[in-house]
Amino acid sequence: MDIDKLIATGLTKNQASAYALLIEKGSISPPEAANKLNLTRTNSYKLLDKLTLLGLAKKSKDMKGIYEINDPTALTSLAADLRAEATTRENAISSIMKDLITKYYTHNEQPAVKIVSGKKLVANAFRDQINIGEDIYFIRSLSDITSMGFDAMHEIRTRPSLLGLNRFVIMPDGNNGPISYENHKRSNLEITWVKNEDYNLPVEWSVTKSSLLIILYANEPHALTISNPLIAGSFLQLWHILSSCLKTMPYYDQLPRRK
Does the pTM of the predicted model rise above 0.85? Predict the structure, then answer.
């Protein structure tokens, strides 16, 4: 049994080791587990009781002091509980983040810069900006799904509306599927169109009142976050200028050039 894969499900190292031992043997006593895992008997009891609480083990009805393996599908419930817990924490962070940032920049004007690479860390950079709790203005690149994958980008695009945030996008009108204006309305999304040939590079710009996020959708995606209200505010002004100018173009009423 791969311990690392069990740890990835949300178990601690000791819990994963005990669960792997339980799977291998089918049933085990706390003293035997203590001997196999180099634990004290007290900690062994606590560990097997925790696995029982998680639904991964059960106390034997026939043999006192023996723990038996339970249906492994309980791991699915564990993953769901962890997701719910993570969502609760993210919502709690989002509810206080704007106030924390305002107080922080009252005493500190130096920009904070963070660069990360890889799909997981780039997705986290998106989430960090969303969790600030400010409306999002972005210039989308149609390379997003190709680089990050549909599931990751779907979560990133839909989470702001779950927090009651509005999104405003300058979007290339490239032919990548039908347009659902009802879905855009439900997800608090307002679009300014730009010709696909006028903006087709694999770079996305996303700005709020206090942060500027730049994503490079390369073979491995990269994210640059600049946290500073003045820098973010200046780019936000440029975003509005660009959006206004695009809407005055003589061809704008013909955009997007798809249904």
Answer: no
